[in-house]
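Predict the 3D structure for this chain.
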Amino acid sequence: MLPKEILKKVQQIQIRTSRMVNDVLAGEYVSVFRGRGMEFDTVREYVPGDEVRSIDWNVTARMGRPYVKKFVEERELTVMLLVDVSASGDFGSHEQFKNEIATELCAVLAFSAIRNKDKVGLIMFTDRIEKFIPPKKGKRHVLRVIRELLYYEPEGQGTDISTALEYLSKVTRRRSVTFLVSDFITAGFERPLRIANRRHDVIAVTVTDPREMALPDVGFVEFRDAETGRTVLVDTADSRLRTTYNRTNMSAMQQRTALFRSMGVDQIDVRTDQSYVEPLMRFFRMREKRFR
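Done. Predicted structure below.
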């Protein structure tokens, strides 16, 4: 039996996110994702008018006459939630921590998926793979996903997005819609992301806090790196230090956005001091416009 406080928290998120799914995203998810994928069905003999690109050269060579691949529209999708649960998520200068925002957003996406009878899977990672929940359908399954995101205690502290993307390719053979949820305070994941995006439809969801972009002038402050444990004493009254901090983080954000754009990876930017509804709606509207 689950403790009452856990059940209560899960139910609160279910109620809050289900309302958004039903009232706001009712038609958006279907128009953006449903029917976008094609899966192999069979082969048939070539007839004049067929595209040369659809010829199956292996079968053609065996049969001695041209055959083409026949594809059908995928009847269901697999939505994978690839979620960074490293220690840097335990931070927030407003009402919610980054990992709490990430959990709610994942709940919205998961409920949208099962509402349309799609499968939902979860990969939680830090500097290692923490937990894998294979894709399944159903409300009960999604509630388990939310429960794990809320109460799982990670073994690792750091962040390794490369390992998570490589693991995704191992356990998810069919094409999936993959939401990569992280604050992306790391580097070196470019090649695995490029490879994963060729096989899957990867959407990067960045979760940031305003204090990670700009320092306030509040005098001496001791900062602790949640992932390494290192501490440093900073004089935030130093205007040059604040300017350098702000420019460095803004540059990192711009470089990350440029990287995603160069790979064709769509991005959803979420902040702890703002509602995630508007960024999510902008993403769906952008996707819908592209597929018209």
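The chain has two domains: 4-32+75-291, 38-73.
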